[in-house]
Amino acid sequence: MDAVFELAQIKAVATALWKEGKSKKIWTFNAAMGTGKTSFIHALCEVLGVSDTVTSPSYAIINEYNSPQAGTIYHMDWYRLKDEEEAIQAGIEDALSSGNLCLIEWPEKAGGLLPQEIFQVHIEILDEKSRRLYTGENQLIL
Fold first, then answer.
1. What range defines the domain where residue 76 resides?
2. Domain count within the chain
3. Tens-level pLDDT at each residue, the chain (142 residues)
4. Sheet bearing 2-6, strands edge to edge
């Protein structure tokens, strides 16, 4: 998938992304600070019928939501992690191996814990109101 969209279209893009990636359980969101990773995950959770409050797990590291479509969802923000050992202590390995949908911001902070089978989502800022989202193996240079 490769889409350029305005922020007002975020839910439609999240719907299309779910159709593409729903077979994968581990999703990584690769983007620079302030790009809208949490906003996009919020829109995706809306698409999946999550009624819980979706917030950034910056301090909690892992938030858990329930979805009638996807079951348990783990939303993780690895930005504050110092290393993989801290990630393990935070319970990240358990979440990754749970078989539940895991949505991960800042995956590069503990990339060695990720399985081979992941769905990579990249987001770039084009201007104040526009973003480019693409999936695949290409890595953003942050």
1. 2-133
2. 1
3. 998 999 899 999 999 999 999 999 999 999 999 999 999 999 999 999 999 999 999 888 999 999 999 999 999 999 999 999 999 999 999 999 999 999 999 999 999 999 989 999 999 999 999 999 999 864 433 3
4. 2-6, 130-135, 119-125, 26-30, 101-105, 71-77, 62-67
